[in-house]
Amino acid sequence: MNTKITSLLGIVLIVTMSCTNSKKHIQEDQHHWSYSGETAPKYWTEIEKNSDCGGKHQSPINIIHKNVDSVKIQQNLKIQYTPTTLISEVENNGHSIQFDFERGDSINYKNETYYLKQIHFHEPSEHKINGVIYPIEMHLVHVSKTGNITVLGLLGEEGDESQLFEFFESFLPIEEDMVKDIHQKIDLSSLFLEDKHYYSYSGSLTTPPCTENVNWIVFKEPIVLSVEEVLKLKKNMPINNYRHEQPLNGRIVTYHF
């Protein structure tokens, strides 16, 4: 009898360990995309089976100015950034440096309010304008109460030092998979986004799951930061953490001036 019980317990233990290992393997698979090697962006469609990465409305794109529809700036976009919004934490997620925000700053786009959730960076830029690649691109990701997403894309060129980037980089370096609590105020109104012209189009997230139906707003005028600030961000992120250009597939890009 004892032998049977011992054998039964052994089988249960083996099955349990097998299930545990399977779950661990699945969890690892969910995070195995990268920007190089066999898990680089050109393989995302294959390795991210339940994603939109193979869709027809993907981002980023190359914006050719002569091919866009031009309209006068209307009240479709309202920037509602305040000096009292709090950054909750910064993390190095292995793909980028990401600053997460507490609820405060928001935008209103096409009569829907979107709250700023996080800011992250790509080096070099993901979007191009007339084929030009910029040293860096900053994404400000906003989500509405209904789960809709609007991303503001800011291209960066090298020049004078930026106080905003000096603030961001005061929390660096940060090692991969590490999180730092911040809980400090930031004033994003210094970006003066209301004064910039922008392109808009319907696209996707530029990282898996590459969710589509994302509102993209890419500002034509770049922000300026120093070479040293670009290099400091670069040292804390994977080399070339950008997704390659995606086909437009008949989508219309609108220029707001």
Automatic annotation (TrEMBL):
It comes from Flavivirga algicola. Residues 31-257 form the Alpha-carbonic anhydrase domain. Gene3D superfamilies: Alpha carbonic anhydrase. This is Carbonic anhydrase. CDD domains: alpha_CA_prokaryotic_like. InterPro entries: Alpha_CA_prokaryot-like, CA_dom, CA_dom_sf, Carbonic_anhydrase_a-class, Carbonic_anhydrase_a-class_CS. Belongs to the alpha-carbonic anhydrase family. Keywords: Lyase, Metal-binding, Zinc. It is an enzyme of class 4 (lyase). Its EC number is 4.2.1.1. Its cofactor is Zn(2+). It catalyses: hydrogencarbonate + H(+) = CO2 + H2O. It comes from the Bacteria. Reversible hydration of carbon dioxide. Pfam families: Carb_anhydrase (PF00194). Transmembrane segments: none annotated.
